[in-house]
Amino acid sequence: MKVFDQQIGQFIEAASSSAPTPGGGSIAALGAALGASMGAMVANLSTGPKFTQVQTKMNEIAANLQKQIHDFECFAQQDMDSFSRFMAALKLPKQTAEERTERTAQLQSAAIQAAEVPLHLMRSCHDAMSILEDASNQFNKNVISDLGVAVISLDAAIQSAWLTVNINLSTIKDKTITKSYQEQGTKLISDAQKIKQHVMETVMSKIG
């Protein structure tokens, strides 16, 4: 069963159990999907006779965000898979020098993958936020609060995914990789904050 094919209650129950997955990375992906769904809704409700000038753009935004919702589901599953891969590597034998070398290599590969998945999630969230920011003044003002919910949710997903990136970076020995991921993540966090602030200023001005 796909992650998002579960009932909401099932997913929450699984997340709250003693099982290690779904964990923070998958929760971040779910939050991102919810944010994107609100963004798609806002775009879909900004079409029709009153929005003929932006109809094509809104349709494109909605379609783009729907694709990203699918991507976020994939990230949720990949996060769980990467954790399982890391745990499997921990259980590899380490009696001989050859076994220890292989185990270390598998652990490092799994740790890199476990950091890459949430970093990709961060990029996708940033892309979704940028799309919404670009059209923030063109959306139907009757659902402008939902635009705010979308952007806040996507930003929260970025921050949450960043925690998952960092905890996995702590086990990666290749400092070139850790430095690159740190720089990428830090920039995404900073950019997302600016986008959120800009969109929320627009949202609050239209609400007021």
From TrEMBL:
One Pfam family, short name: FTCD_C
Organism classification: Bacteria, Bacillati, Bacillota, Bacilli, Bacillales
Superkingdom to which the source organism belongs: Bacteria
Transmembrane segments: none
Domain Cyclodeaminase/cyclohydrolase stretches: 8-184
GO molecular function, one term: catalytic activity
Entry protein name: Formiminotetrahydrofolate cyclodeaminase
